[in-house]
């Protein structure tokens, strides 16, 4: 069983907690943030052509 995501669009967080997923085609997406000890977080994002999108997650 593989632990890799079923999509080519994923990232690991940086030391400051940020992440970046490059070259995502324009469209509407559901995004999931996984944490090994805390409850997973989900969100939605729309990526515009040539633009950037932001999703914030808070783990407690």
UniProtKB/TrEMBL annotation:
Entry protein name: Carboxypeptidase regulatory-like domain
SUPFAM superfamilies: Starch-binding domain-like
Keyword Coiled coil: no
Domain of life, source organism: Bacteria
One Gene Ontology molecular-function label: carbohydrate binding
Residue ranges of every copy of the Rhamnogalacturonan lyase domain listed in the record: 9-55
Keyword S-adenosyl-L-methionine: no
Protein keywords: Carboxypeptidase, Hydrolase, Protease
């Amino acid at each position: 069983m593989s632990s890799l995501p079923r999509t080519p669009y994923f990232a690991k967080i940086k030391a400051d907690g940020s992440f970046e997923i490059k070259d995502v085609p324009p469209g509407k997406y559901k995004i999931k943030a996984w944490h090994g000890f805390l409850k997973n977080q989900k969100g939605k994002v729309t990526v515009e052509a040539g633009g950037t999108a932001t999703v914030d997650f808070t783990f407690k």
